[in-house]
Amino acid sequence: MTVMETTAEAAETGSSPDLCAAHPERELRRPDGQDNYTISEVVAYTGLTAHTLRWYERIGLMPHIDRSHTGQRRYTNRDLDWLGLVGKLRLTGMPVADMVRYAELVRAGDHTYIERYELLEATRRDVQSRIAELQDTLAVLDRKITFYADAGRALASERS
């Protein structure tokens, strides 16, 4: 479990995150002491568009986002952690509906651990299957590259 996941879940459930599972050197640095970001700052930090951030909120993928007195969205470090996890889930190919379901389960509390586990385990199996397919594809490419490199050297030696 990553710092992003444990922090986001801990904030939602009130439990303590398992910081030992983290790889802090992989995380992007945030301004010291800052825990309040505008949507444009989150866009710059995450690479997501403002439209995507608003859509995530609208479909329930993001928890409630606080607003300033002028109605401007105000994101926290916890929100950035959650967006980091969502980004990883997107990379797995997890369907948006499953990501929304996962978010709902996190917000529902600790009694949903088994469902969350099953959802993530199924996603993990899908990722492992795709990795195996990609490794097979890579092996084919490697054989072809070796063939053409050898053929190119043979042709070059015949011409000399």
What's the structural blueprint in terms of helices and strands?
Elements: H1 3-13, H2 39-46, H3 50-59, E1 66-67, E2 73-74, H4 77-92, H5 96-108, H6 113-159
Antiparallel strand pairs: 1-2
Explain what this protein looks like in three dimensions.
Helix 1 packs across helix 4 and helix 5 runs antiparallel to helix 6. The chain starts with a helix and ends with a helix. A two-stranded antiparallel sheet has the order 1-2. It has 160 residues and is mostly helical. It is 66% helix and 2% strand.
% residues in beta strands: under 5%
* Helix percent band: 55-70%
Encode the helix/strand succession as letters.
HHHEEHHH
Stretches with pLDDT under 50, minimum 5 residues:
1-8, 10-27
How many beta-strand runs? 2
- The largest sheet has its strands arranged as 1-2
Output the radius of gyration: 22 Å
End-to-end gap? 59 Å
**Major sheet:** 2 strands, antiparallel
Number of helices: 6
Mean pLDDT: 84
Shape, per Cα inertia axes: elongated
Question: Helix- and strand-based class?
Answer: mainly alpha
Kindly list the characteristics that best describe this protein:
2% strand; disordered N terminus; mainly alpha; single chain; 6 helices
